[in-house]
Specification:
The complex is a heterodimer of chains A (354) and B (195).
Chain A: H1 3-9, H2 14-47, H3 63-72, H4 84-100, H5 119-129, H6 131-140, H7 144-175, H8 180-186, H9 200-213, H10 225-228, H11 238-263, H12 285-289, H13 293-313, H14 319-346
Chain B: H1 2-24, H2 28-48, H3 52-76, H4 81-85, H5 88-110, H6 129-138, H7 142-163, H8 175-179, H9 183-186
Helix pairs in contact in B: 1-2, 2-3
The chains are: A mainly alpha (354), B mainly alpha (195).
């Protein structure tokens, strides 16, 4: 943050200033979420050799706004015998943890809301809370399909959280810190120093478990249209449905951002260690080539694209295959690699662990 | 200090109310959700004590995993509430006695010198609860820690053994055999003359 901005905001009490930052940031995130839905429809369209939404605004760019207005003015139907309070609470229970997790995400060396020394644990705790929205929605709807969907969600998320947690254990072992900022700083060096290479099995496990945690294709049996209509949110309409929809995309952005931070060096520039040092001191161009928030955003966008790509490519897993993959493949892979990593750390294997 | 005290009483109030609601509400799913709220607020109180590792772990383990499975089970049960509540008045005196004994025990224990009940001192700014706990667990208490781990492992093995039984008519697929299928096992091409 520049000197000028600090001077400009110095008369404002810090509490108000932080609240304003958080408010602005939430708006940005919700805006990103809205446009990820458009990106998804466009990307799927191109992959399926069709155009995708192109009617509202130039090239269909107004589509998310139109969708938002449509959903806002739709009636929210309350099913008979539904639990009135929990039915309304459930969408919020899935949205808030996805937004709250952003509190500890560092965008660049100094651009973050807070850097707490148990940041990774906080993220893990927040992402594990999201399942309550799904479960409560399924139960409160008083509908068979919704209940089946939420039971599937509970089993799936608990199963993949373990593999995800072990993948994170590997990152913590390598960096020696639970703070996200320190984890990125520990990857400094070059592209080959980022953890995707020494922790390749854990990186892949984390990405797969992340897709499963967000209930996205190919692991979207929670809402599998062909089997249980729309799963846990089958009874929701209007804004209730819209918030579930937003929560799903907010989680995609969050998981992508985390993968970028933990395995692809967050804000670090990929040219670091490759390009000559003078390149980073060229006016303007050096700023773009050097480390900064823009690299973090670019890496996050790449993983968001991967999520959409997976959806267009893979057929849906069968439920027993999902459980088998989580418990019998991913979990052993992480356990074995943590063991291998322990040995590598003990012998201080160069160039990563020396 | 004033703000901290206010925050403490705010969370403590929610904690007590949600704990009371948990044992009095009629619907078991609501009871589980109140228990979740109680865990969450106690985690917040731990954060006030600068025990952020414990607070976040409480949310992660109990709220994020244990209570999800609880909710999973409770949602599927068809509990007869009338039958469960039938003995409430009869069992009340026993319950009160047990509660009173537990409260008395806690008062006695917490007044021993091991628990310093004076106002907790603020730690220095660079104090890291995570680091302190890790250093204690892996140096001074490493054997008790490992023994606890082994006991948990035994419990896991026992629990899995209890559920591992072969039913007579269970059918299951073998994914290894499924992926090893060859084309010639399944497809036979027949060349015929056109008629």
């Amino acid at each position: 943050m520049t000197e000028w901005w600090l001077n400009f905001t110095s008369p404002i009490p810090p509490v108000l200033l932080t609240t304003a930052y958080i408010f602005v940031f939430m708006l940005v995130i919700v805006g990103c979420v809205a446009y990820v839905t458009l990106a998804e429809r466009k990307v799927l369209g191109f992959m399926q050799v069709r155009i995708g939404p192109n009617r509202v605004g130039p090239r269909g760019l107004g589509q998310p706004v139109a969708d938002a207005f449509k959903l806002m003015f739709k009636e929210m139907v309350l099913p008979r015998d539904a639990d009135r309070f929990l039915f309304r609470l459930a969408p919020l229970l899935s949205m808030t943890p996805a937004l709250a997790a952003w509190a500890v995400i560092p965008f660049s060396e100094h651009l973050n809301f807070t850097e707490i020394n148990a940041g990774l644990l906080y993220i893990l705790a927040m992402t594990s809370l999201g399942v309550y929205g799904v479960i409560v929605a399924g139960w409160a709807s008083n509908s068979k399909y919704a209940l089946l969907g939420s039971l599937r969600a509970a089993a799936q998320i608990v199963a993949y959280e373990i593999a995800m947690g072990f993948a994170l254990v590997g990152v913590v072992m390598a960096s020696g810190s639970l703070s996200l900022g320190d984890i990125v700083r520990a990857q400094q060096g070059s592209v080959l120093h980022w953890y995707w290479l020494p922790l390749l099995p854990l990186f892949l496990t984390y990405l797969i478990a992340g897709v499963a945690e967000t209930n996205r294709a190919p692991f979207d049996v929670v809402e599998g249209e062909s089997e249980i209509v729309a799963g846990f949110h089958v009874e929701y309409s209007g804004m209730g449905f819209a918030i579930f929809f937003l929560a799903e995309y907010a989680n995609i952005i969050l998981i992508s951002a985390l993968t970028a931070l933990l395995f692809l060096g967050g804000w670090l520039s990929p040219l670091e260690g490759l390009a000559p040092m003078q390149a980073f001191h060229v006016p303007y161009l050096g700023v773009i080539l050097g480390s900064g928030a823009h690299w973090f955003v670019a890496k996050t966008c790449f993983f968001i694209f991967c999520f959409l790509w997976f959806r267009a490519t893979f057929p849906r897993y069968r439920y027993d295959q999902i459980m088998r993959l989580g418990w019998k493949v991913l979990l052993p892979v992480t356990l074995i690699w943590i063991f291998v990593e322990g040995i590598l750390l003990y012998v201080e294997f160069p160039p990563w662990f020396d | 200090m004033l703000i901290q005290t206010a925050v403490f009483y705010f969370f403590a109030g929610i904690l007590v109310l949600s704990a009371l609601a948990m044992i009095t509400v009629r619907n078991p799913v609501h009871a589980v959700l109140f228990l979740v709220l109680a865990f969450f607020t106690s985690a917040a109180i731990w954060l006030l004590l600068e025990a952020e590792f414990l607070g976040i772990t409480l949310v992660l383990v109990y709220v994020g995993a244990v209570m999800v499975l609880f909710l999973f089970v409770v949602m599927m049960l068809d509990i007869n509430l009338a039958k469960m509540r039938a003995g409430f008045a009869r069992h009340l005196p026993v319950g009160l006695v047990v509660g009173a004994v537990m409260a008395a025990e806690m008062i006695v224990i917490l007044n021993t010198p091991a628990f310093d009940l004076a106002r907790p001192r603020l730690k220095a700014a660079d104090y890291s609860n995570t680091r302190e706990l890790g250093e204690l667990l892996f140096t001074e208490y490493v054997y008790p820690f490992e023994i606890a781990g082994v006991i948990l492992l035994v419990a896991i093995v026992a629990a899995i053994t209890l559920t591992l039984r072969k039913r007579v008519r269970t059918r299951s697929q073998s994914p290894a055999r499924q992926v090893n299928v060859d084309r010639k096992d399944r497809v036979r091409l027949v060349s015929m003359d056109s008629e």
